[in-house]
Structure formats: C-alpha cells, structure tokens
Amino acid sequence: MTHTEAWKIHHPEGKYRVLATKRLVGERWLEVLSTFDCRVEIYDAEEMFGEAELIEAIGTRCDGALGQLNEPWNERVLTHFAAAGGKVISTYAVGVNNIDLACASRLGIAVCNTPGVLTEATAELALALVFAAIRRIAEGDRYMREGRFLGWLPHLMLGRQITGRTLGLFGAGRIGQTVARALAGGFGMNVLYFNPHPRPELENYVSDLAALAKKHGQPVPSVRHTEDLDELFVQSDILVLLSSYSPALHHLVGARRLALMKPAAVLVNASRGPVIDEASLIAHLKNHPEFTAGLDVFEFEPRMVDGLTELPNIVLSPHTGSATLESRSNMATLAALNCAGVLSHWPANTAFSTTDLATGPMRKLVPSLLNAKELSWPAT
Ligand code: GLV
Ligand code: GLV
C-alpha cells in the first residue's frame, strides 16, 4: 500500500499520466516532462514498490512510468500496465534485469534505460571498493573510531600493493573498460578480461599506455581477452564483476571458483548481487583472512545474509554505484527524455551519445530505447 500524502503532482494539467515511483535527482527531468505534456505523479517517500504497489499506482489509466531498478516489472505488472494504456517503462538505471523485456515487447511497451551517463560514477565506485578492500579502509576507520589506535606499528592493517599485478574483469562494457583504463594507466596493472567478445578499443588503448609507460620508465601495463572463466579466477589479484545480469549468471561465483582464487585476492561486485553465492563468499572470507571483498550489490538486497556484516575483511556499500550528483542528474534527464520521447513518438536515437543527449541541446530523439527493433520503432 502506498500513502496518499506521499504522492506529489507536478504539472497537473498534462495530457499524459506519468508515474514516478521515486523522486529523481535535480529539476530538469520535471521540466522535460511538463514541456512534453506529461502530468507527473511522484511518490515522494522511501518505501520500496513491490508488485502490489506498482499495480495500485498504475491504476486504470497510466501512459508512462519512471521506474526503479528494484521494482518487479514482471508479466503480471506489465499486463496491468498495458491494460491501463501504458506505453513506456523508463527505468532509472542501466541494468534492466528487473523488467521482463520479452513480455514488454509482446505487449507493445517500450523499455528504456540510462546507459553512458553513469559509466564514470560506477567505475569510480568500483575503484573505491577495490582500494577500500585491499587497504582495509573501512576496517581502519572502525579501529580509529573505537579508540584502538595506540600509534604507528609495523604490522598494523597490512594490505597488498596493486602496481604490476593482474586485474581481472568479468564484463568489459563501458564501465569495465573505464576501470581497466584507470588501473592500467595509473598502476601499470595487467588486465585480463572475460567478455562475450574481444574489445579492440580497450586493447589499443592499453597498448598505447604501455608504449608511453615504457618511454617514461613506468610500470608497463598489458591487456588480454580470455574465454576461460576459470583462468580469470586463477590469475586475478583483483577481480571486478561489472557485467549486466541475467539468470544464467546466478551464483557464477561460488565455492568452487572462490577456491581457484589466490589466497590474498580481492573480489569486487558492482553488477548485481545474485552473481555471487554469498553464503560461499562468507565461508571463504572466514577461512582466508587475507582475502578481501567489496560489495555494492547483494544477493537478497536489501537484506544482508547472516554473517556478512560481522566479517572484518569485507567492505559494503548500499548499491551506490551511480550515486554522484552529476550521474544521477543526467540519468534523470535521460529517463524523462525516454518517457516523453516514446509518448511523443520521437525516433529512437542511434546517432548521439546518451551523454550528449542528456547535457547538450535538446533533440527530439528517444535516447535509449532497448526494444526498438521488436516494436518496429523508427530510428535515426
Ligand atoms: C545500477 O545498478 C544500474 O543498473 O543503474
Ligand atoms: C554499462 O553501461 C556498461 O556498458 O558497462
């Protein structure tokens, strides 16, 4: 059940009824939506929406929805949405594993997301977790707050150095490549990546970095694609998970693959929680005190599996990969353009970067329409 007093109406006279299940960041998204004749009903409170809340909010007439990544846009909800006249689900995220895309396509509902503008923010958070885990930053912070610091000691909070070591990447999309460029360029790391297909743009970039590093006498990075998933686990000193999620990836990281990893490796997850079998990770962290992990996403989000928060060698963040003011504001603009654009029948963008569309001059294009082909939607 939603609370009546939490609903705020923006531009009440708008022709299209658009639902925003949370208030997004900034004001521009609301300007875009009202300019294109949308009445926006915003749920301005923190409770999460499940199936019942979505169906209640959709009601009997709803043209578009700005949804969140933790809402179940499944067959039941989508069917209700289609019956209410719903034309577009514009999710405030890049990941769309919470939306039944095939079902939406069957029902003629457009599904849009916000790629590109969150690449840097999410890469930066993944890097923050890498450093926080390997240098035990959260553990050190707790130690200080508890008044346990007696002074400098030779063995206090020993971590590991990353320079010259191997960075494993599971998923080398935009975000993964940004992490790879940072660690190869900044610390001469050797990048080993697992991705459905090779990434020549990343390989060329790291080759150029390697030439530059050699010329200046700095640690020389390298890069290599692998199709052998187990090799990725065996070789990585730092393994960062940054793939999109599908059920085929459920528990990709379990006891067997953790056992392949180096005893003092670092595992960071900024993709989706269920990629990791958390019970196995907890057992592994207990048995290998030198192994560290950094998680931004959780198997049963928001619930923490028993034991996770008691471990010293793990750092946790509350799914804040894209949480910078810049990123979240641009995501809001894209989400609004996606929604207004579908309702106004603009062509699907194929020509411009989503960052240009979010920050540059207004263009009447739907920035990121994922099922354009299935809907036979005209494109640029
Ligand atoms: C965040 O997890 C996203 O998918 O945008
Ligand atoms: C997401 O935007 C990715 O491609 O990694």
Assigned CATH class of the largest domain: Alpha Beta
Number of domains: 2
Secondary-structure element order, as H and E? Answer: EEHEHEHEHEHHEHEHEHEHEHEEHH
Low-confidence stretches: none
Main sheet: strands, sense, barrel: 7 strands, parallel
Task: Please give the share of residues in helix.
Answer: 25-40%
Compute the CA-based radius of gyration. 22 Å
Oligomer: single chain
Q: Helical element count?
A: 13
The third-level CATH topology of the largest domain is Rossmann fold
- Cα shape: globular
- Summed over residues and divided by their number, the pLDDT gives a mean of 97
Tally of strands: 13
Q: Span from first to last CA?
A: 41 Å
Biggest sheet, strands in spatial order? 9-8-7-10-11-12-13
CATH architecture of the largest domain: 3-Layer(aba) Sandwich
* Strand fraction: 5-15%
Overall structural class, as computed from helix and strand content, comes to alpha/beta
Query: Please, what is the CATH homologous superfamily of the largest domain?
Result: NAD(P)-binding Rossmann-like Domain
Bound molecules: glyoxylic acid
3D architecture notes:
The chain has 13 helices and 13 strands. With 380 residues, the chain is an alpha/beta fold. Helix 3 links the parallel strand 4 and strand 5. The longest helix is centred in the C-terminal third of the chain and has 19 residues. The protein binds glyoxylic acid (2 copies).
